[in-house]
Design brief:
Blueprint lengths: L1 E7 L4 E9 L7 E9 L9 H16 L3 E5 L8 H20 L3 E5 L1 H12 L11 H9 L8 H14 L8 E4 L8
Length: about 180
């Protein structure tokens, strides 16, 4: 059994989901998920002081051993937003490193490709907004999460550690750390 924290980057809202993976081929179980309000763009210095104790509490309650996350996207026409996304995920990645947790990231493009595979969509240009939710519903037997951030957090955990881990490019931080199975 493997318990993973899925994370979807946001500078105002951070999607988190604790997912448990059992035997090979068994359905993942979402134990908890939340759309966390992490702050305002005008005060990014508040993210760490708010987010670190929050992650400590989630970890104390759910004892996950790894994090699977979407890499923060680079938004060319909005560099301020891109920087805020990177800052938020710097807090998450640093928090994980200090606690010896493995972290795997997948790009937004590779997550969309995985969603297309789940849904049987062959058109590589298909990127409809509801696609991730539909993929989550299919994997979870019709039970998608409440918000898109929570769905994206679950899906990142699933792609990194569950059903699609070998099929998309990834970046792994904290390379000396292995999740406990």
């Amino acid at each position: 059994m493997l318990r993973v924290l899925g994370a979807d980057p946001g500078f105002k809202h951070l999607g988190l989901a604790v997912v448990e993976f059992g035997e090979t081929g068994s359905a993942p179980v979402v134990l908890w998920s939340q759309d966390v309000h992490v702050g305002e763009a005008d005060h990014p210095e508040r993210y760490g002081p708010m987010l670190i104790p929050y992650l400590d509490n989630v970890h104390a309650e759910w004892s996950f051993t790894a994090i699977g996350a979407e890499t923060p996207p680079m938004i060319q026409d909005n560099l301020k937003t891109s920087c805020m996304l990177q800052r938020t995920f710097g807090v998450v990645d640093g928090w994980a490193a200090c606690r010896g947790l493995a972290v795997q990231y997948r790009s937004p493009v590779s997550l969309k490709a995985a969603a297309r595979r789940v849904l049987g969509i062959t058109d590589a240009k298909e990127t409809s907004k509801g696609m991730m939710r539909l993929a989550c519903e299919q994997i979870l037997g019709g039970k998608a999460r409440r918000t898109s951030h929570e769905n994206d957090a679950f899906f990142a955990a699933w792609v990194c550690y569950g059903g699609q881990s070998g099929k998309s490019a990834c970046f792994t931080s904290n390379q000396g750390v292995s999740p406990v199975l």
